[in-house]
Amino acid sequence: MRLSIFRRIKRAFCGLFSIMFLDSSVRLMLLIGVFVISFSIWIGVSRIEKIVVTVIVFSVITIEGINTIIERVIDLVEPRYKEMIKEIKDSLAGFVLFSSMGAAIIGAMIFWPYFVSKFF
Fold it and tell me: What pLDDT was estimated at residue 1?
C-alpha cells in the first residue's frame, strides 16, 4: 500500500503532536525553547546567533523526543522492571541532560554580552 505524500505528512504531524501533548518533558522543552527563542529576538542578538539558538533549541527538543519514543518502546517490549532497562533509561536521560547542559553553555556564551549591555 503506497501512501500519498500528503497522508505521510499528516501522519508525521499526528505523531509529532502526540509526543508534544502526551509527554510532559517534551512540553517543558518546548516551553523553554519558545522562551529562549523569544528572548533572543527581544534582546537583539545577531542573525547568525538567532540561527544557532534556534538550531540548538530544535536539537534538544528532538533528542528529548527520541528519548521519549525509545523509553515507550522499551516499556512496550519489557514492561517489568529489570536492572538493564533502568540502565538504558538512565543513559538516555543522561544524554538529554548532556545536550541540555551544552545548550545552556552555548546560550550563556551568546546571551551574556547582550544581557550585560542591556541591564548593567
Answer: 61
Single-letter code of the amino acid located at 81: Y
User: What is the spatial distance between Cα 94 and Cα 76, in angstroms, rounded to a whole number?
Assistant: 21
All three cell numbers of 45, joined, read: 542578538
- Retrieve residue 55's grid coordinates: 538550531
Q: Are 85 and 78 in contact (CB under 8 A)?
A: yes
Provide φ and ψ at 44, rounded to 5°.
85, 40
Q: What angle do CA 70, 74, 80 make, to 5 degrees?
A: 155
For 21-39, what is each residue's pLDDT tens digit? 888 889 999 999 999 999 9
Model pLDDT for residues 52-83, shown as the tens digit of each residue: 999 999 999 999 999 999 999 999 998 787 88
Give the C-alpha separation, 100 to 4, whole Å: 37
Pick 24-119's CATH classification: 3.40.50.1370, 3.20.20.70, 1.10.287.3610, 3.90.1570.10: 1.10.287.3610
